[in-house]
Amino acid sequence: MPRWRVAGGALAGLLLGGASAVAAWRWVRAVAEVARDSAEQRLEDAQRLAGFASWEYDLATATMRFSRQLSAIVGVDHVVGSFAAAGAHVHPDDIARVRAARDDLVARHKPFTLEFRLVRRDGRVLDILSSGEAVRDESGRVVRLWGTIHDVTEQRAAERAAREAARRAEQTRAELEVEHQALQMFQRAMLPAELPRLGTVDVSAVYLPLAERIDIGGDWYDAFGLPDGRLALAVGDVTGHDLRAATVMGQVRNAVRAYATEHPDPGAVLARVNTLLARLPELDLVTMLYGVYDPIGHELVWSNAGHPPPLLRRGDTATLLTLEGGLLLGVVPDGESYPEHRLRLGPGDSVLWYTDGIVDHRSIDPAEALERLRRAYARAPGGAAELLGSVSTEMLANGPREDDVCLLVLRRAAEPANVVRDRREFAVS
Amino acid sequence: MATPRTPLLVEQLTGELNGGTVLRIHGELDISTAEQLRHAVAPHLAAGGRLVLDLSRVTFCDSTGLAVLVGFHKRLAALGGGLELYAPVQRVQHLLMITGLNRVFPVHAAGEESPTR
């Protein structure tokens, strides 16, 4: 509590006079001191706990008084000083602002709130939030100035750390975004820019990336003309979702094209890709369907290396072609064989190849999801593109996906083609 | 990105199945748990021999999980041993069948020479 109230008590004691007055004075003074001491102690305790401190400047005595807590914050041991001395610890860069606020308060009694840095005697720099105002008596005369300072160093440090963390997170996100875009560009570059267009058969394929995932899958599809006029088809999935998976996908996709051009039989192509993969130093596993379609005889020959089974649509029914397949690629280097299956497509028949992202979700039974795919395919209308659009729309409407998806439909035209095309038209150009 | 949805737990069962160590795995095998699984099983690969993984408590496995199992098998096979799987749940059985890996690792059905203590 301010000292002048004690002085007021002393004055009251003196006015009473005499022995009783002396006793009364002693009592008044004792009570006042106890009250003052305990109130000051409580104020000091409160200040210490709250991390703030106060000062007051008595205009009558021109005395600056710091609370003990302020002395502790600033790192000085005195509790009484001058206004000028109070500014001595302000950071040199902030001193002009502090002085201006102080002068405004002294000369014009203008209150202030400002933040500045304070340099302790031990060299530590504190962030201080300070405010000050004039205190008037009943007649409106300014009798003293007082204010508080609040040590906000830890708070500001936490804020700076949070800003820095946010900046770094944003930087990391931006870097990942760049990587993601590069991967997507790579993935798109690996997918055929356009599919072979034949008169008697339609091929349609789609890659559905998972937009909310920063990483991408190693799923791909491919369709290309062979030198003998037949059409080669591939759908595959590389383990993993990173740059490595994308590069392995690119290698396998190109290896398939190279092997197929030399010797297109499905069993031979898959066996050679398996040997290639199993000899890579890292363990890279790939599942894949690869096949060759003859647009004259309408026969599809294909082999399966550990990949989900294809579907056949004939009339209004769709059937899973769960025929014997070979092991997924990359596990054992030699001796793995990939049985070949043959299927003649009638007018309007189609096959659907897909990657497991369309049926694989941990919250759904895979057999049930496969059955849903089969039904969606059975009732999908139209040509290859419409079939594909209808199936993907229906399957993707059924809740979230966890993985990228590739879908490929090969459909023989329903009506006999008006023009019987020459095989050379399908040859590699 | 790689925070496990459920914690992966690997416990070593007392006793042996056909003379091999038996580890029971609890959780989901995917990209988020692959490294944990590799780390937990690595000490049991060094000696080669037969290792049985009890998959009865594995509720989900994707291709990344499968790749980890293939990695174990290759390590063991190089030392003259091999990996065996015990009691995978239906969706994992399905995956092993599609990929043909059920022809690479012996897969024991639940109840068939139970590896439990």
Number-wise, the strands of chain B total: 5
Percent of residues of chain A in helical segments?
Answer: 25-40%
**Mean pLDDT of chain B, nearest integer?**
86
Class from secondary-structure proportions of chain B: alpha/beta
H-E order of chain B: EEHEHEHE
Output the structural class of chain A: alpha+beta
Spatial sequence of strands, sheet with the most strands of chain B: 1-2-3-4-5
Number of E-state strands of chain A: 16
Largest sheet of chain B: 5 strands, mixed
Overall geometry of chain A comes to rod-shaped
Which segments of chain A are poorly predicted (pLDDT under 50) over 5 or more consecutive residues? 1-18, 419-429
**Number of helix segments of chain B?**
3
Distance between the amino and carboxyl termini of chain A: 98 Å
- Radius of gyration of chain B equals 13 Å
GO molecular function, one term (chain B): anti-sigma factor antagonist activity
InterPro entries (chain B): Anti-sigma_ant, STAS_dom, STAS_dom_sf
Organism (chain B): Planosporangium flavigriseum
Protein name (chain B): Anti-sigma factor antagonist
Features:
heterodimer, A: 429 residues, alpha+beta, six-stranded antiparallel sheet, five-stranded antiparallel sheet, 10 helices, 40% helix, disordered C terminus, B: 117 residues, alpha/beta, five-stranded mixed sheet, 3 helices, 5 strands
Describe this structure in words.
The complex is a heterodimer of chains A (429) and B (117). With 429 residues, chain A is an alpha+beta fold. Helices cover 40% and strands 25% of the residues of chain A. In chain A, the strands form three sheets. Chain A has a six-stranded antiparallel sheet, sandwiched between helices. Chain A has a five-stranded antiparallel sheet with strand order 7-16-15-12-13, covered by helices on one side. In chain A, a hairpin with a 5-residue loop joins strand 4 (112-119) and strand 5 (125-136). In chain A, helix 6 packs parallel to helix 7 (243-262) and helix 9 packs antiparallel against helix 10. Chain A is rod-shaped. The N and C termini of chain A lie far apart (98 Å). Mean pLDDT of chain A is 83; it is low at 1-18 and 419-429. Chain B has 117 residues and is of the alpha/beta class. Chain B is built from three helices and five strands, in the order ββαβαβαβ. A five-stranded mixed sheet of chain B has the order 1-2-3-4-5. The model of chain B has no long low-confidence stretch (mean pLDDT 86). At the A-B interface, loops of A face helix 2 and helix 3 of B.
